[in-house]
Specification:
64% of the residues lie in helices and 9% in strands. The protein is built from 13 helices and nine strands. It has helices at residues 4-7, 15-36, 49-75, 78-102, 120-145, 152-173, 204-231, 234-255, 266-342, 349-379, 386-401, 418-439, 476-487, and strands at 43-45, 108-109, 114-115, 263-265, 404-409, 443-451, 454-461, 491-496, 502-509. The strands form three sheets. A five-stranded mixed sheet has the order 5-6-7-9-8, with helices on one face. Strands 1-4 form a two-stranded antiparallel sheet. The protein has a two-stranded antiparallel sheet with strand order 2-3. Helix 8 (234-255) runs antiparallel to helix 9.
């Protein structure tokens, strides 16, 4: 078979190829059973079932046409335009067949649940199937070759208008066209109560036209399969499988025509199976689209976070440069001026005291500027862990103020978001500044550890201590530390007694501050 050469490749069948090949094998087996097992039969009288089948096929094909048109309008794929046109034609053909039955356009035989045949109905259905198959072949071929299409409204509506014209004039010219199937005639109406209608048999013209239609559907399935391999569109995969059902439906109709109302053939069943596969494909493609949108939203969120982090890094770099080149240089200049001023011999004792105070304030400002520049620059390095950052800062603090400062870290600390790590560092910095300003301590220790899914930092000194209840309301240093802890969802406690040092403890749960894997990259 034409399709088998491309599908049966040992060791190289992908999922779609395997499904198409399995579908061909199953349908070929069922077709052989219908031919060689007379009890199965290819035609059955089921009054009303043909109405249900035609209605279902009309609704599904019309829905697929709408979905394909929307897809074309969104992505501009030519294959979607031709699919919309093809399924619109199929919907019109199924709708016309339904009107022939429901509208009783033929002479009714109510007791048999059958209608006298008229050649217009099979001619219209056959014409619609041939047009749809041709459109599907052209659409897949055009897309595979990358040909741009114009006049999309003509492609969409032109075949449909042509089929409507065929329907309009079918009753006039159909008697002049060779029949597609043989029909029975009631020769003795007086015995009609015991008459059993003979199922229609195919004619050479009907067989040829349906075999051509089946071949076109096979070609459309192969081209659609190739298009799916190129684009990966899930809808094309289901369509390729469905077209195999449509092709076998044409093959069955060629030998088991269904021209009477109430007569259902195996070809009708396969045509409905084609519609069922299309319906499943729409639902599967909808789920895939929703999943893809979810992944796209997640990616957009990650990109947004990355942009925020990059902007934050750029801003930190700018601030550190301005602090180093601006404020720090100005403070050094001020220190030099104060030094020159204090070197004047005729300077009074009071003026010298003021100069000394200014020099001390400038030194403190330089230390704060140096600390800020260091924090900003270290915070720009994603590879620097919180423990390394703390250790670096504590060592620098010991060098600047001549205190014995130690940093202890018990185990490996988890990575937290930059905001949480920054606030923890600010709390430690404020705690150490308070040690220098108020504690009169000689030793200060900073300890970091993990306790019950919390990151805990403790800053303790051997200074003079204080009574927490006697702290003046509105104390800026302690209040800012409390606020920083609340911002990151943590808890800050102060343990201090007069002449017994001070211990500041901050605890942050992991759940509010864990850094995602992507956040470790700049």
């Amino acid at each position: 078979m034409f399709l088998s050469r491309h599908l049966i490749r040992v060791g190289r069948l992908d999922r779609l190829d395997a499904v198409v090949a399995a579908t061909i094998v199953v349908l070929a087996t069922l077709s052989a059973a219908v031919v060689f097992l007379p009890m199965l039969g290819g035609q059955h009288v089921e009054a009303g079932l043909d109405v249900v089948l035609d209605t279902f096929a009309t609704v599904v094909t019309l829905g697929v046409a709408a979905v394909a048109w929307v897809r074309y309008r969104e992505i501009g794929a030519p294959v979607a335009l031709f699919q919309a046109s093809a399924f619109l034609v199929l919907a019109i053909a199924s709708g016309a067949s339904l009107l022939f039955i429901v509208g009783r356009l033929d002479v009714a035989l109510a007791d048999f649940g059958l209608n006298m045949p008229r050649e217009a109905q099979p001619q219209i259905t056959t014409a619609g199937h041939l047009m749809a198959a041709t459109l599907l072949v052209f659409g897949a071929a055009v897309s595979l070759k990358g040909i741009r299409v114009r006049h999309h409204w003509l492609i969409l509506l032109g075949p449909a208008v042509a089929l409507l014209a065929i329907i309009q004039f079918a009753s006039a010219w159909s008697p002049n066209v060779p029949p597609l199937s043989s029909v029975f005639i009631l020769s003795n109406l007086s015995t009609w109560q015991t008459f059993q209608p003979v199922p229609p048999s195919p004619t050479p013209l009907g067989v040829c036209l349906h075999l051509v239609g089946g071949g076109l559907f096979v070609l459309a399935a192969e081209l659609t399969r190739r298009h799916h391999r190129r684009t990966g569109a899930m809808g094309d995969g289901f369509l390729a499988v469905g077209l195999v059902f449509a092709a076998f439906g044409e093959f069955h109709t060629a030998f088991y025509p269904s021209t009477y109302g109430g007569l259902v053939s195996s070809g009708d069943i396969l045509t409905v199976a084609f519609a069922v596969v299309l319906l499943i494909g729409i639902e599967a493609e909808g789920r895939a689209t929703r999943a893809e949108l979810g992944r796209a939203n997640e990616t957009l969120g990650q990109l947004k976070d990355a942009d925020v982090r990059r902007a934050a890094l750029e801003e930190r770099t700018r601030l550190s440069r301005e602090l180093h080149d601006g404020l720090a240089q100005d403070l050094w200049l001020a220190k030099l001026k104060v030094g020159r001023l204090s070197a004047i011999r005729d300077l009074s004792a009071e003026a010298r005291a003021v100069c000394d105070d200014l020099a001390g304030a400038i030194d403190a400002g330089l230390a704060d500027a140096r600390q800020a520049v260091m924090s900003l620059r270290l915070g720009n390095e994603p590879a620097v862990s919180l423990s390394d950052l703390m250790a670096h800062y504590v060592d620098d603090f010991a060098d600047r103020f001549g205190l014995r400062a130690e940093f202890e870290c018990e185990g490996e600390l988890p990575r937290l978001t930059p905001r949480v790590e920054a606030e923890l560092l600010r709390i430690v910095q404020e705690s150490l500044n308070n040690v220098v300003r108020h504690a009169d301590a000689t030793v200060v220790r900073v300890r970091a550890c993990v306790v019950d899914s919390h990151l805990e930092l403790v800053v303790g000194d051997n200074g003079r201590g204080f009574e927490p209840s006697e702290v003046k309301e509105g104390s800026f240093g302690l209040a800012s530390m409390q606020e920083r802890a609340l911002i990151i969802g943590g808890e800050l406690t102060i343990d201090s007694r007069p002449q017994d040092g001070t211990r500041i403890r901050v605890s942050v749960p992991f759940g509010t501050g864990k850094r995602p894997a992507a956040a470790t990259r700049p």
